[in-house]
Amino acid sequence: xxxxxxxxxxxxxxxxxxxxxVVKMLGQDPELxxxxxxDTRQDEETIRQQFAELRPDVLVDFTTPHTVYRHMELCLQxxxxxxxxxxxxxxxxxxxxxxxxxxxGLGAIIAPNFAIGAILCMKFAxxxxxxxxHVEIIELHHDNKLDAPSGTALKTAELIAAVRSGKKQGxxxxxxxxxxxxxxxxxxxRIHSVRLPGMVAHQEVLxxxxxxxxxxxxxxxxxESFMPGVNMAIKAVxxxxxxxxxxxxxxx
Length: 252
What we know:
Elements: E1 7-12, H1 17-26, E2 32-37, H2 44-54, E3 58-61, H3 65-78, E4 81-84, H4 91-104, E5 108-110, H5 116-129, E6 135-141, H6 151-163, E7 184-186, E8 189-195, E9 201-209, E10 212-220, H7 227-237, E11 243-245
Parallel strand pairs: 1-2, 1-3, 3-4, 4-5, 5-11, 6-8
Antiparallel strand pairs: 6-9, 7-8, 9-10
Helix pairs in contact: 3-4, 5-6
């Protein structure tokens, strides 16, 4: 039997590559207890039985954009705090979930990236954009990633746009001989997505100014790089009463 301070953690997608890393990490921390996989592909009655049997405090979710919204709803129904690393929720879904979790007084964390270095990359990029507003983002991921641009790139773009002076980059008469060659336009600057086998998760933010350039880059070499952030989020979500989007809110 677990001691009262131990956090009971279930994992959705425990057999996936990220899920396996999460299960391994949970087994290495005496403050966390892995109680089992939550198979949310089952019918509603079976899912209720799983929640009753596993009695999780937290559900860690690294599944797909198509299933994560339903998982969040299930957590609301069962009073379980979700820690979600799956990206792809629409802005409307995010707004709705924030309202519902706040109303329920239930903690939740959705993070586009759990690597501490990636969070620092975002923060540094936002700092730089105040002084070097000419910027482009290049994100590179494995070719099985479903959404583009990545949640990390979108979050980085949001942080940049919040402090960057409004500016439409490039030549006013710029044209694309092949549509999409310049990447996606986000409030006047560009985001480029690369999908190739052999990659895990990588991002470079490029800045240009008169006579100088600046590159801020982060590389996750393997999925183990995300585990310290997942560990931190599991412990932090127990003290939250609302949905927090982005791990940067948990670090100074």
